[in-house]
Structure formats: structure tokens, C-alpha cells
Design brief:
This protein is mainly alpha-helical. It contains 15 helices and 2 strands.
Length: about 425
């Protein structure tokens, strides 16, 4: 066994393990969102996550990966690699294309899961399935090509190590567009008076979801090295931890002194905001900068939450405040604090300008494309559940089962099609 073969084997193990950590984040999304929404919609949350993993994975395999990492066409899209076929020799890796695809496939599932939370409790499940196809096959992969696949933004020098812009800002603005188009939940914003408060159904469940996401984020960030022997792994891990801790601590102290009590949902989302904020610069910024990035991310999350409420935009789990607001800040923070090229580290304005341009393009792309896709879907399939379906709960309306029940007995099964079968005979 040569040293090169051994190194490739170690890198493959590293990438596969970190990809598995990222996939476990879907369990975090499921628990977090289920804990934040009403019990009657918990199964629907879970089924949307399964749709992300199943349909999203297949769409990315067939179309998305090729558009994202295929042979570049004038900096816009990839033209090879569909179903992992064709010429992919331009991708310089120490691991196999299969292992690389697995890691990138885990990323695309995270993007669509961001949108899922913003439209929770009122989206038509069939319409959501169509949107999953569009996001994982086209919207995200094309934008990803611009930054990570050799496209025009990468040629300009944009830095987004693990996706504050490509995944979180784009996903967050897509979530905003979806929430605006589909409208708020029934009763959330009365015609007169303040907005109604929908209490989380299970905060312990939501907190476990947040911890799973926090755990998976080490794979998200450190795994993006794609090499087990990369000397930056330890630094990436510690700044990820520091930023998350700073985001959570900042929101905990702010709500304690602002309202006289520490608000649990804010602390949960504040920690996640810190994770989002450091994702772009985890390989480029110092420990102290990571603490500042996390703290600012937490405060921006609270500000964005209040902004949504003021404009009567319903985001049940805080997808836009956590992912878009913090992702934008994290992307800009690279231009400010990167040890090489950052404005505050003697690098001048170039990197900051490129980061700002790339961020603006990705946010507009996510918002506009999602807006258009939802409008088109609505022509074919209603994107919104009916008032009756929403009142009953999407669990029963779309999946025919409740998340929990109190009956200790078996439920009697009846054949409701018996009469029809007898008529046919």
C-alpha cells in the first residue's frame, strides 16, 4: 500500500463519516420544527423531511450534481456529471467522485429543509413535493455552481467555505419568498390588535433537535475540508463551537435583561444563528472573530424575527431569521475578518466587495426563483391547504395519522371500499 493510497483511504473515511453527520442533521430539523409547531402538524413536519431526503437525493443525483459540478459553461452551469456520468476529470480530489457526491448530496438536503420550516402548518403537501424537485434539481445547484463549481463568482474570488451564502442565505431568502406567497397561518395576524402567539408544542423536543444540528455542524464545517489530514480541521471545529456558544449566550443574556427572563426559543435559535454565521468563514477567521460573529448573528436573528412580525410574515420556526440574516452576516464577515484578504486584517476592500456582490446575487436568485416556482405550482396544484385542513391539522388531512394518541386499545379496521367491491362483482 502506497502513502498516496493510504491518504486517499483516510480522506474517504473522513468524508463519508462527516456526510453521515450532516445527514443526521435532518433528524435535528425534524425534531426542532416538530417541537416549534403545534402537535397536530408534527407528522407533516416529519414527512416533509423524508421528502427532502428521498426525493431531494434522487433529483440531485439525476440532475442537480451535474448542473453544480459538471464541466463549466461560460461560468453559469455545469454540463456533465448527470447521474454521475460523463467527464468529471476537472474536479481535483483525493477521494472518489462517489464519496464527493455523497457529501454534496447531504448539503442539498439541508437547503430544502430550511424552506420547510417557513411554510410549516399550512402548505399543501403535494405542492411541497413539486418544490422539492425544483430546489434540489435546479435552484440550488445552479447557484452552487457559481461559487463552488468553478462558476463566475468563484472566478471573482468569493469565499464561502461551507455555505453561509450558498446554503443558508439562499435557503433563507427562498424561505422568505415561500412564506410571503403562501401567506400566514389562519388566525396568526388578526385584522385588529397584536398578532397571535402560537406556543411551541414541545420545547424539550426542539432543544434536542438543536443539539443534533449543533453536532452535525462539525461535519458540515470541518468535513468541507474533504481531507482527513487537513491541518485546519481543529481550528474549524473550535471556531464553530465558539460562534455557536456566543450566539446562544448573547441571546440568553439579551432576553434576560430585556424581558426579565431568558427566552428558550430565542436561545435555541441564537445558537443555531451562531452556527450559520461562522459557516462561511470557519476556515478563514480567528477565534476572537468567531466569538464576535456568533454574538452578532444571535442579535440579528432577534432583529429579523421582530421585522417579520412587524410586516405580518409568518415564519413558524424562524427559518429566515436564523438562516438568512445570520448567513448574510457570516458572508460579509469573511470580507471583514478573514486573516488573508479581510478589510480589518489589512487586505483592503476587494474581498468585501466580492462577498457583498455574491451575497446579493444569491439572495435575489433564491427569492425570485422560489417566488416564481410557487406561483407556477399554484396554477397546477394549490400551494395552500384549505382552512378546514389547517384547522383539523395537516397530520390527519394529508397523512391520516396523528403524532400521538392516548388510546391504549387497537383501532378497529374497517373496509370502506367493501360495498364498491361487491358492486363490481
Amino acid at each position: 500500500m502506497t502513502l498516496e493510497t493510504l491518504n486517499a483511504g483516510l480522506d474517504t473515511i473522513w468524508v463519508v463519516l462527516t456526510a453521515a453527520m450532516i445527514l443526521l442533521m435532518e433528524g435535528g430539523f425534524a425534531l426542532l420544527e416538530a417541537g416549534f409547531v403545534r402537535t397536530k402538524n408534527n407528522v407533516n413536519i416529519i414527512m416533509k423531511v423524508f421528502a427532502d431526503i428521498t426525493i431531494g437525493t434522487l433529483c440531485y443525483f439525476v440532475v442537480g450534481f451535474g448542473l453544480m459540478y459538471g464541466t463549466d459553461l461560460i461560468g453559469s452551469i455545469g454540463t456533465s456529471g448527470f447521474m454521475l456520468k460523463g467527464d468529471l476529470s476537472h474536479i481535483d480530489l483525493t477521494i472518489s467522485i462517489d464519496a464527493f457526491w455523497l457529501f454534496q448530496g447531504a448539503f442539498v438536503i439541508a437547503v430544502i429543509s430550511i424552506v420547510s420550516g417557513a411554510v410549516a402548518e399550512r402548505i399543501n403537501f403535494r405542492a411541497y413535493l413539486i418544490y422539492v424537485v425544483m430546489m434540489t434539481a435546479f435552484i440550488y445547484p445552479i447557484a452552487g455552481h457559481w461559487v463552488w463549481g468553478g462558476g463566475w463568482l468563484s472566478e471573482l474570488g468569493m469565499q464561502d467555505f461551507a455555505g453561509s451564502a450558498v446554503i443558508h442565505a439562499l435557503g433563507g431568502f427562498s424561505a422568505l419568498a415561500a412564506a410571503v406567497v403562501i401567506g400566514p397561518r389562519v388566525g396568526k395576524f388578526p385584522s385588529e390588535g397584536p398578532s397571535s402567539i402560537s406556543l411551541p408544542s414541545n420545547l424539550p423536543l426542539a432543544s434536542v433537535g438543536a443539539f443534533l444540528l449543533w453536532f452535525g455542524w462539525f461535519g458540515f464545517n470541518a468535513g468541507s475540508t474533504l481531507q482527513a489530514t487537513d491541518g485546519r480541521i481543529g481550528h474549524i471545529a473550535i471556531v464553530t463551537m465558539l460562534s455557536a456558544a456566543s450566539g446562544g449566550a448573547g441571546t440568553m443574556l439579551y432576553t434576560l435583561f430585556r424581558y426579565g427572563r431568558s427566552d428558550a426559543p430565542s436561545v435555541i435559535n441564537g445558537s443555531l444563528a451562531g452556527l450559520v454565521g461562522i459557516t462561511a468563514g470557519c476556515a478563514f477567521v480567528s477565534d476572537i472573530a468567531a466569538i464576535l460573529i456568533g454574538a452578532v448573528s444571535g442579535m440579528l436573528m432577534i432583529a429579523a424575527t421582530n421585522w417579520l412580525e412587524a410586516r405580518k410574515i409568518d415564519d413558524p420556526v424562524g427559518a429566515f431569521p436564523v438562516h438568512a440574516a445570520s448567513g448574510m452576516w457570516g458572508t460579509i464577515a469573511v470580507g471583514l475578518f478573514a486573516t488573508e484578504g479581510g478589510l480589518f486584517t489589512g487586505g483592503g476592500w476587494h474581498l468585501l466587495r466580492v462577498q457583498a456582490l455574491g451575497l446579493m446575487v444569491l439572495c435575489i436568485w433564491g427569492f425570485v426563483l422560489t417566488w416564481m416556482v410557487f406561483k407556477v405550482i399554484n396554477i397546477w396544484v394549490p400551494i395552500r391547504s384549505t382552512d378546514e385542513e389547517e384547522e383539523l391539522g395537516l397530520d390527519i388531512s394529508y397523512h391520516g395519522i396523528m403524532a400521538t394518541h392516548t388510546s391504549p386499545e387497537f383501532i378497529k379496521s374497517e373496509n370502506y371500499f367493501k360495498q364498491e367491491e361487491e358492486v363490481k362483482r
